[in-house]
Specification:
Keywords: Hydrolase, Signal. Residues 1-41 form the signal peptide. One of its GO terms (molecular function) is alpha-L-arabinofuranosidase activity. Residues 889-1011 form the CBM6 domain. By secondary structure, the protein is α+β, with helices and mostly antiparallel strands. It has five domains: 8-389, Alpha-Beta Barrel (TIM Barrel); 410-472 and 610-721, Rossmann fold (3-Layer(aba) Sandwich), CATH 3.40.50; 481-602, Trefoil (Trefoil (Acidic Fibroblast Growth Factor, subunit A)), CATH 2.80.10.50; 760-878, Sandwich (Immunoglobulin-like); 891-1011, Galactose-binding domain-like (Jelly Rolls, Sandwich), CATH 2.60.120.260. It is 20% helix and 26% strand. It has 21 helices and 52 strands. A six-stranded mixed beta sheet has the order 13-30-29-28-14-15, sandwiched between helices. Strands 42, 44, 45, 47, 50 and 52 form a six-stranded antiparallel beta sheet that branches. Strands 33-41-40-35-36 form a five-stranded mixed beta sheet. A hairpin with a 5-residue loop joins strand 40 (856-863) and strand 41. Helix 5 (140-160) crosses helix 6 (193-208) and helix 5 (140-160) packs antiparallel against helix 14. The longest helix has 21 residues, at 140-160.
Length: 1012
């Protein structure tokens, strides 16, 4: 979600930075009703005397009774007003303001506030490791405790300003990390549905508390569905065939909601099979079937307006908002705090008959159900109302944070027992790199209450050893052709080119973040250069930050020097235009006003200090060199920005190679949010650890692991590839067809899913199954003995995978079915038991559109990663055999088995999915079709938006060389949503064959039926 501002790709004008800040602080809430609360009023206003006996305030009554009582007392205008994210007070009933949505992916985020005098203040919170780091712990018990802290702190912030910090928390993100180039990789948990679901359930239960009827806070799952790219995210359609949708993209949502670990879902920005997620009937038709509890579903920010804006799906906002409500979304996150446009559109939809009042009632009923479960209408505010601000960042919360940060660390390589370091033998250590002495937060982080960097942590652990530090950043000066130097002052201010300035004022440290992007930190004052007011450059930022990351530049070679190009963004392209290059004016002021390098000022880039060479010198005489490199979360991919490269930034790679060349005793600490193609490091550097941006305790956690105070136990929640060339296009969502993730990838990864080393070793016995035969409704237990064969205590993550040997359909190479963390002392043996249900082995049968457990033998694979299998067994599953496909009754065309040159598209603007040809020779294949009783014709339901007629060729077995049975002529239907039924004769055919339909573009096929 992009908070409180239009989706950047809609082209709408954005708010000023001051306006965004004010909205983030909960200011300027537009009242929809005539009355509203004071700025700091409680979310539950005191009821009037007449309302004290109202039944909805009686906590002894059933939830449904209380909801209906309150709903019945609301006017239509009041109910409509409750549909917006910022719900106004209703003083006549003692109902206070309510805000849906507080970001809380790894701690309560966006903690900017205003004091009573109107000054901006920052409220700190406990910031845990990024979500992908929480998943790398593979420890649901720990993650549940993290969730408890987040839920408690959400309550604490709510007690401070309920209109700013609502109790509906927009977390966790359960979008599967099928492509590591996704800019929001840090927000998700894993590429695997089971691991994602397990961690999400733990986090959600922790947030909610132990009583699902009396919630501490209310987690919402983001973002439904198949959302894993930022490029054109609001206009691209994720093509997900039924098997992939059911088995993969829906799986974590289904599991978390079935476990009552969340109270709703948030829609995503993308389209799914041609239909915008903001108007997809899955919310009612599918999502609500996964739980018996009421769900309060919300749109992502700006989603309703995209339906009429960038997506152009509806002509008017009344039609769009009606579709949002009718599909099962209850709360509109749109137009910042201004509910007016939503109220106006819903009223118009009611007047036009697009909605009836019961549609509004249904949504409001879901909203009120959530508010009741949060205790708002209980006389005492519910069991969690007494939580106050004093708990935030308390000692217990810091302890959980440190434990999480430590368990998130993954040891990727440890040749010749390089680690742990022997602190007593180290006299001099070099701690090097741009991330060695800084901590970065991300867009969904809160503010850190304190900071322990890797340098801090190691300096503490290494005692009397000399610890030297170099960032490895080049220090430069920029000189114009007439001899002036770009100058910054110690205080924030505009950059100017001047003559005779003090040397320190002309020096800038350059940090390389890859993809041609650098940041410039002024040595004078230590602040980063930003795109400032009136297109000037100013040194005003402690770190790169904010939605518009205005600290990004490129130093582009040009002629005999370099030009400076601004590489960030401001509002939108129509405002910013193509003026991205820096010019030095006659008054010396630096402004971003040139449209090309030819018009820009050319600078001589004078290297004052070579950061790589300084780091090399520091490492040369050290007993150990620790190089800390990685990403800046606001620059290296994030919301609205995918990565194109998974490698280290070039200058960071040079730093690592130079340090290793000077001192082979080099340890790489990789601090970033996504898998990285560090093939050179794996081949050369003896020891490598990885951690996400892990909050205030990052340095303590990394240091404890490096010196052996903690034995690393993190495991990778994603496959790490050797090259981005191992990946298909980021917009390819069919992981079966395109062989994505560890389940289907056929190459050799750099590090496999589940990988992680330890300072001790573990031996596995042979896995035993509790029964050799598993019935379709049964369950077995897989047991394996695990022994710590090393000299240190440690935790092993025992992972259970299965593989179905034979199937009608392509099956994964392996798939995670369960895991257990077990802590063992040296020499200790434990029996690890993991249950396995036959239902877990089901897959989606497209021939009959249902889940099926096939009769087959399944390999039982137990090991330390998807590629490190320590023992195998097998079980015979007694289920059913999928019969030959019967196409003599009408079948949806989307239920094909294979395809080429097609996409899936919306059959109508409400329901249904069709197949559309996108190129000449497109085809779909239906495997093993039963033609034994013969076939004489075919009937298809088709649309053809082209003016000319099209055709569908019917072949047996092969799209190119198979026997042609006949051709269907497809007349023009004028537009894509107008369908007609067409019949054609076919040559006789018998037996069991693959049936292939070859389609002309842009023919759209909804369904087919063979005729005898």
């Amino acid at each position: 979600m992009r908070p409180h501002s239009p989706n950047p790709s809609t082209g709408s004008s954005s708010l000023s930075r001051r306006r965004v800040l004010a909205i983030a602080a909960g200011a300027a809430v537009t009242p929809v009703l005539a009355s509203s609360l004071p700025a700091h009023a409680s979310a539950a206003a005191a009821p009037t005397t007449a309302s004290r006996a109202l039944r909805f305030r009686d906590p002894s009554l059933p939830l449904a009774v209380r909801v209906e009582d309150l709903l019945s007392r609301l006017t239509l205008d009041e109910k409509i007003a409750l549909l917006h994210q910022y719900q106004p007070a209703i003083p006549r009933l003692g109902v206070g303001r309510f805000k849906t949505g507080t970001e809380a992916l790894h701690g309560v985020a966006w903690s900017t506030d205003f004091d009573d005098g109107g000054a901006v203040v920052t409220a700190t919170s406990t910031v845990f490791p990024q979500s992908v780091g929480l998943a790398s712990t593979w420890n649901p018990d720990l993650v549940r405790r993290v969730g408890e802290v987040v839920g408690v702190e959400a309550r604490a912030f709510h007690s401070r300003r309920p209109e700013l910090w609502g109790l509906q928390l927009w977390a966790p993100v359960v979008n599967l990390l099928r492509d590591p180039r996704w800019g929001r990789n840090e927000e998700g948990y894993s590429e695997d549905p089971h691991l994602t679901a397990t961690i999400a359930i733990a986090y959600g239960h922790g947030i909610q508390g132990d009583d699902p009827d009396r919630l501490r806070a209310a987690p919402v799952l983001k973002h439904y569905l198949a959302y894993n790219n930022e490029i054109r995210r609001d206009t691209t359609s994720s093509m997900v065939p039924p098997r992939v949708k059911r088995e993969y993209y829906e799986a974590a949502f289904r599991a978390a909601l079935s476990a009552d670990a969340a109270t709703g879902v948030m829609s995503s920005y993308n389209l799914v099979n041609g239909r915008p997620a903001s108007a997809h009937h899955d919310y009612d038709d599918v999502v609500r079937t996964w739980t018996e509890r009421p769900l309060c579903n919300v749109t992502d920010a700006g989603g309703p307006n995209n339906l009429t804006g960038s997506q152009g799906y509806y002509a008017t906002q009344a039609e769009a908002d009606a579709a949002v409500l009718k599909c099962g979304l209850d709360s509109f996150t749109v137009d910042d705090t201004n509910a007016g446009p939503t109220v106006e559109a819903v009223r118009a939809a009611l007047e036009r008959g697009l909605l009836v009042e019961s549609d509004v009632d249904k949504a409001v009923r879901n909203i009120l159900s959530l508010r009741f479960r949060l205790g708002e209408f209980d006389p005492d505010g519910g069991p969690h109302s007494g939580i106050g601000e004093d708990v935030i960042d308390g000692p217990e919360h810091r302890a959980v944070n440190r434990e999480a940060a430590t368990q998130a660390v993954v040891l990727l390589k440890n040749a010749d027992a390089t680690l742990p370091l022997d602190a007593k033998r180290i006299r001099r250590a070099a701690v090097l790199g741009p991330l060695a002495n800084t901590l970065y937060t991300d867009w969904y982080s809160g503010a850190l209450p304190y900071r322990v960097t890797v340098l801090d942590g190691l300096s503490d652990r290494l005692g009397d050893a000399e610890v030297v530090h170099e960032e490895g950043a080049d220090r430069i000066a920029l000189r114009t052709a007439d001899g002036r130097h770009v100058t910054a002052t110690a205080e924030p201010g505009a950059l100017r080119a001047t003559v005779g300035s003090a040397a320190e004022n002309t020096h800038f440290d350059v940090f390389d973040w890859g993809e041609g992007t650098v940041t410039l930190r002024a040595v004078a004052g230590g602040r980063y250069v930003s795109f400032g007011p009136d297109r000037t450059l100013v040194n005003d930022s402690e770190q790169p930050h904010s939605w518009f990351v205005q600290q990004q530049f490129s130093l582009v070679p040009h002629g005999d020097g370099h030009v400076l190009r601004y590489a960030g963004n401001e509002t939108d392209d129509s405002w910013f235009g193509d003026r991205t290059y820096v010019v030095v004016g006659a008054d010396g002021l630096l402004t971003v006003t040139a449209a090309s390098a030819a018009e820009a000022t050319v600078f001589t880039r004078e290297v004052v200090r070579d950061g790589v060479q300084e780091a090399r010198r520091a490492a040369r005489d050290a007993d150990v060199a620790v190089v800390v490199v990685g990403s800046m979360p606001f620059i290296n991919g994030r919301e609205d920005d995918d990565r194109t490269d998974l490698g280290l930034a070039p200058r960071q790679q040079e730093l690592l190679e130079a340090v290793h060349g000077a001192n082979p005793a080099t340890v790489l600490v990789l601090n970033n949010s996504y898998p990285t193609t560090i093939t050179w490091a794996q081949d050369h550097v003896p020891a490598i650890v990885w951690t996400t941006h892990a909050g205030a305790e990052t340095g303590n956690a990394v240091a404890d692991v490096l010196v052996g105070v903690a034995n690393p136990s993190g495991r990778l929640p994603q496959t790490w590839y050797r090259s981005a060339d191992d990946l298909p296009d980021i917009l390819d969502y069919d992981l079966i067809k395109h062989r994505r993730t560890y389940q289907f990838f056929e190459g050799s990864p750099l590090y496999p899913f589940g990988h992680g080393l330890s300072y001790t070793s573990f031996a596995y016995g042979r896995p035993r199954v509790s029964a050799g035969v598993l019935r379709s409704d049964g369950e077995i237990t897989v047991a394996v003995e695990v022994t710590n064969t090393g000299s240190r205590a440690g935790a092993e993550v025992v992972q259970l995978y299965t593989h179905q040997r034979r199937s009608r359909n392509p099956q994964p190479r392996s798939r995670l079915r369960g895991f257990r963390r077990v802590h063992l002392e040296p020499g200790e043996t434990a029996t690890v038991r993991i249950p396995l249900r036959a239902a877990d082995l089901a897959h989606w049968d497209v021939t009959r559109e249902k889940w099926v457990v096939e009769s087959a033998r399944h390999d039982i694979l137990v090991g330390a990663s998807a590629a490190d299998i320590r023992g195998t067994s097998s079980v015979r599953v007694v289920g059913e055999r999928i019969p030959p496909r019967d196409l003599h009754t009408e079948r949806d065309a989307q239920n094909f088995d294979d395809y080429s040159g097609i996409t899936l598209t919306d059959r109508s603007k409400t329901r249904g999915t069709s197949v559309q040809a996108t190129e000449a020779g497109a085809w779909i294949r239906f495997r093993d079709v039963d033609l034994r009783r013969g076939v004489r014709g075919i009937e298809v339901r088709v649309a053809n938006p082209a003016a000319a007629s099209g055709r569908i060729e019917v072949r047996l077995d092969d799209p190119a060389s198979g026997r042609v049975l006949g051709t269907v002529s497809v007349p023009s239907t004028g537009e894509k949503y107008t369908y007609t039924s067409v019949r054609a004769d076919l040559d006789p055919a018998r037996g069991r064959h693959d049936l292939v339909l070859v389609l002309d573009a842009p023919v759209i096929l909804a369904s087919l039926r063979l005729l005898r």
